[in-house]
Amino acid sequence: MLQGNATDTQITHLQRLWLYILCGLILIYLVFPIFIVVPLSFSDSRFMRFPPKDWSLRWYINFLTSPEWRAAIWVSLRAAVYTTLLATPLGVAAAWGLARSRLPAARALVLAVISPLIVPVIITAIGLFYLYARLNLVHTMTGIVLAHTCLAIPFVFVTVSSALSHFDIGYERAARSLGASQLRAFMTVTLPQISPAVMSGALFAFFTSLDEVVISSIISGGENTTLTKKMFSGLRDELDPTIAAVSSFLIGISLVILLLAVLMSKGRNDD
Amino acid sequence: MNGSTGLSISGLSKHYGSFRALDAIDLAIGAGEFMTLLGPSGSGKTTLLMTIAGFTRPTKGHIRIAGRDLAAVPPHKRNFGMVFQHYSLFPHLNVAENVAYPLRMRRMSRTDTEQRVAHALDLVQLRHLSDQRVGNLSGGQKQRIALARAIVFEPDVLLMDEPLSALDKNLREQMQFEIRSLHDRLGITTVYVTHDQREALTMSDRIAVINHGRIAQLGTPTDLYNRPADSFVAEFLGESTLLPIERSGVDYTLSGQPLRHDHSAPDARYLMVRPEKLEFWEPGLEPTHNRFNGTIEQKVFQGDSLQIRIRLASGQQIVMRRPARRTVLDRIGEGGAEIALALHSDDTVLVPDGAA
Lengths: 271, 356
Ligand SMILES: Nc1ncnc2c1ncn2[C@@H]1O[C@H](COP(=O)(O)OP(=O)(O)O)[C@@H](O)[C@H]1O
Ligand SMILES: [Mg+2]
Prior knowledge:
Distance between the termini of chain B: 40 Å
Helix content of chain B: 25-40%
Distance between the termini of chain A: 37 Å
Shape of chain B: elongated
Helix content of chain A: over 70%
Number of strands of chain B: 21
Radius of gyration of chain B: 24 Å
Strand content of chain A: under 5%
Bound molecules: adenosine-5'-diphosphate, magnesium ion
Structural class of chain B: alpha+beta
Largest sheet of chain B: 6 strands, mixed
Largest interface: A-B, 19 and 24 residues
Number of helices of chain B: 9
Number of domains of chain A: 2
Radius of gyration of chain A: 23 Å
Oligomer: heterodimer
CATH superfamily of the largest domain in chain A: MetI-like
Structural class of chain A: mainly alpha
CATH topology of the largest domain in chain A: MetI-like fold
Number of strands of chain A: 0
CATH class of the largest domain in chain A: Mainly Alpha
Number of helices of chain A: 11
């Protein structure tokens, strides 16, 4: 197979070998941190030493029985869910509105919507901190969710806009001629057809919030300390493998959610 | 569905910048009438239909139904059924759900919905496909379902934009017949857009020929075919040869030969000759016919008929069409043979110049 016959214009697998190797290296590079972090979290040692000598679950037990860590998990999950629930409809609405808009300013508005992707997060974070200080939103769930929603909307907006750009406007026209208002036409005809894009947008929103460090470090705190903030300060103060256990836990959650999403979209395509 | 309403359009214009896609259109469509908008691509047919449907806002003018101005009525409240070239069936719904969609939007009860959907699918003879996904249907089936969906809610007007242009020729001809007979059974006021003149002639009660955003002529298929208002309509509808004519006093001449004609238009510039109206000259046709002499240049066999190109003595070319019958074949000589043609004064149509 590696050297199988090839015509003049075909390239053999052997000639392509360097591509396969490069590809493999890139994949390893991408998942490499997981191969370090996950084994570390099962270490028996008090120090982050790789590779671990003995194995145990003590850091998971430590993490899951600590009230502080548990509170942080809860804060992060709630923030991620609220952010998803807020950013998804807003991002979808913005994408639809701008896709259907005949305003000359529509392009400029697109830039405004995706600006949180462009502006460095640290700038957004500092700006929000001063704003929140005046509004008494520092260290509140509302503050975290609003800030994360800002960051998440562009992801929903971009995925949904791309789906809408391939979507034939004729369907909405047909629906409207058949008695649906513009909004109803969108809800009953467009939305069901672009739902995979909306789903991926929602997933992006969820992970944007769950993984977010910079803004969380600055505006979360007190009883509303997110997991990422607590991990970050943990790295400074008490460098033990609990952090590795928390990281592995986050990786686990992400994998489960991604798997569920894949299974759900499979189920939809099969019927 | 009988007793549906007529539609009246007055002074309707649509400008895009300085370009006039529609230019002061006046058109009254009678209740239950099958009106076709016919014109070349880019003439403004779709713009006119979309303006009637409410998707395009006119720059000027009014559309009224039963005396009520539609300006402030959004598309979904106009109660007009629409069929598009590309079907626009909803791929996430099956056939019955597609047809039920307009009833769902009107919050009709379930039993009524089922009954109406079944009836509409019966009308297009596709009831057996109720549970099919629309992706599995053929083009003709899709267009029939789209038609069922557009009539199931008993719309006041049915609007169709080149609904058959994506289908192949045989299917198209069959569907023309089906749509027309459905129209006759339901008596629904219909506005039908096409660029296919034969389709327009086959289906319509009246045809509005559109050119550059204006109505070039409005009339029955027979009117338009036999009495085109100008050279544009004459060329666009059916086969014709246009020969430049001169004016001498009150009469018109073709290369000096006076023309006998029953209908004269002011400012006529061309003699329009339909190929099938030309006959072989016989003695005795003198009082009623014009005579043209020429030589046969080319004979083209077209199955059912014979197309004969003739060079007139004046140098102009003219086309004649005769059924490919033995008697005809026998009378026509080879290329280069002399021939005398006759054209009845009633078929001698003189038309002014129409902006092409
Ligand atoms: N939104 C628009 N902006 C500018 N020009 C348009 C627009 N829509 C249509 N036109 C122009 O109006 C003319 C008529 O178009 P249309 O009604 O689609 O023609 P038809 O359906 O007869 O082929 C065309 O020249 C087209 O380019
Ligand atoms: Mg068109």
